[in-house]
Amino acid sequence: MMRTLAVAIVLTLFPAAAFPLGEQPLSEPPERHLSGTRQLTFGGQNAEAYFSADSSKIIFQSTRPPHECDQIYMMNVDGTDVRLLSTGKGRTTCSFLFPDGSRFLYASTHLGGDECPPAPDRSRGYVWALYPSYDIFLADTRGQALTRLTSTAGYDAEAAVSPDGRKIVFTSVRDGDLDLYLMNADGSGVTRLTDREGFDGGPFFSWDGRHIVYRSHYPDTAQELEDYRGLLRDDLMRPRKAEIFVMNADGSGRQQVTTDGNANWSPFMHPDGRRIIYSSNRHDEQGRTFSLYLINRDGTGLERVTYGARFDSFPMFSRDGKKLVWCSSRNAKEPGEFNIFIADWVD
Asked: Which domains can be identified in the chain, with CATH numbers?
């Protein structure tokens, strides 16, 4: 859910007029790192697209008929053979394939009811819903052998699998705050990785499994802290600012990467282990458009990757570093449309 900022932010916080509609180029001239950009989905709301370990498949979430909220799908890397993997009940988010390609991980609210959970109450401003019925599940890629991995009260989601398939990193409120946790692939051996008050989320392992990259925001005033605590008690949070962090896979050696006070999120590490790609609105004074940026782990070498008045997010490098997949509103035909794009990565 919290990793899935795309549709929620653009449709609610930012007006659709900020994003151009109709035929547009699939790439902009300044996008020198991207070559041969291809669009894989056409229409609807498609987000959080992630490669399989061998880069032959892409797993993603999508809101499309007959379902009224996100379900999990898988397709070939060229966009063919789209298949539903989740149950079709409740709302789902944050899917990820195991290295063997035969199993996948995702979060779902279906145990809380077959229907889509209600949208959050926006009388308190722009907030995200932390649905307490979200739990993390494991299933095979036929959508069968469904196994529940988390059962504590409250929000459990935003899970990703380590490259060796042995560990899962995820976000949970089980200890009263939004923190990152590590568990074994069968749901056992849960360990808390972060403990500073504020929201930590959107974690991913590096391709060598040695590091975890994520985004966080820690309230820095008494009023902000009070607001954060009050919202959290009602299963809500306000995601207007976030910074990128990286740490060792055991939670040690935490390092803040960005420090600009913008909405920096959805990070993923390049296979070289030195660079991080992420989404940010730092280029937009009004904060209404998001582009992809590349930065070194030490916070140096910031470089903009995508351009245009649109939404670009959820980037992921293939394991060999030769391809990039991400979600974008480029070439959208209708307001609120997001599609999945893939390109060859040029260093």
From this structure: 6-345 (2.120.10.30)
